[in-house]
């Protein structure tokens, strides 16, 4: 069985050799070739750059050495999970509305769970709400964190107007102490 290391391929060098000059220039190295004389073998024999400067491709598939899959660029989102990413949670409009109303009611904060035996009253309320709308407590907590600044609440928007008569109510002598 092939290891993950054998599926990795390092292609063209992406190192910017002119970064100190404020411009962009690559050396034209087309593929990483390990240099056996360098310590650890992580330098390229063709251009002398470290392997990390070369574009990494990961070949997915079951076959052996003859094109066992299409090469796909590896990204920073792949965290050792072989290309599987967490699926994004989709909420219905009804769930969004209910979560918005509940979050405003509790003040956009969920109390921490206590490690002891009995749960706090607020925690029971959050758990009950999450069961009712069909989301986990963690998903609701993340949703609240992502939406606490973007929500427009009628209770949080207060407009204060200052009229000239309100300013002139006090006499100038009462303003100076």
UniProtKB/TrEMBL annotation:
GO molecular function terms attached to this record: DNA-binding transcription factor activity; transcription cis-regulatory region binding; zinc ion binding
Entry keyword annotation includes Transport: no
GO cellular component terms listed in the entry, alphabetical order: nucleus
Gene3D superfamilies registered for this protein in UniProt: Homeodomain-like (1.10.10.60)
Region (Disordered): 65-96
Alphabetical list of SUPFAM superfamilies matching this protein: Homeodomain-like
Coiled coil: none
Intracellular or extracellular location(s): Nucleus
GO biological process: regulation of developmental process
Domain ZF-HD dimerization-type intervals: 10-57
Subunit structure: Homo- and heterodimer with other ZFHD proteins.
General function of this protein: Putative transcription factor.
Protein's recorded name: ZF-HD dimerization-type domain-containing protein
Organism from which the protein derives: Colocasia esculenta (Wild taro)
Source taxonomy: Eukaryota, Viridiplantae, Streptophyta, Embryophyta, Tracheophyta
């Amino acid at each position: 069985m092939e290891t993950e290391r054998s599926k990795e391929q390092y292609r063209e060098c992406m190192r910017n050799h002119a970064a100190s000059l404020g411009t962009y220039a690559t050396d034209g190295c087309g593929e990483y070739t390990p240099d056996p004389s360098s310590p650890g073998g992580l330098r390229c024999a063709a251009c002398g750059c470290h392997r990390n400067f070369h574009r990494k491709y990961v070949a997915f598939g079951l076959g052996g050495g003859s094109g066992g899959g299409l090469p796909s660029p590896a990204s920073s989102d792949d965290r050792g999970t072989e290309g599987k990413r967490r699926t994004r949670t989709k909420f219905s409009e009804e769930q969004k509305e209910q979560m918005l109303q509940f979050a405003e009611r509790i003040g956009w904060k969920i109390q921490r769970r206590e490690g002891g035996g009995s749960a706090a009253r607020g925690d029971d309320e959050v758990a009950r709400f999450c069961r009712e709308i069909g989301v986990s407590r963690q998903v609701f907590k993340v949703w609240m964190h992502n939406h606490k600044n973007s929500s427009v609440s009628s209770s949080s928007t207060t407009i204060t107007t200052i009229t000239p008569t309100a300013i002139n109510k006090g006499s100038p002598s009462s303003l100076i102490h």
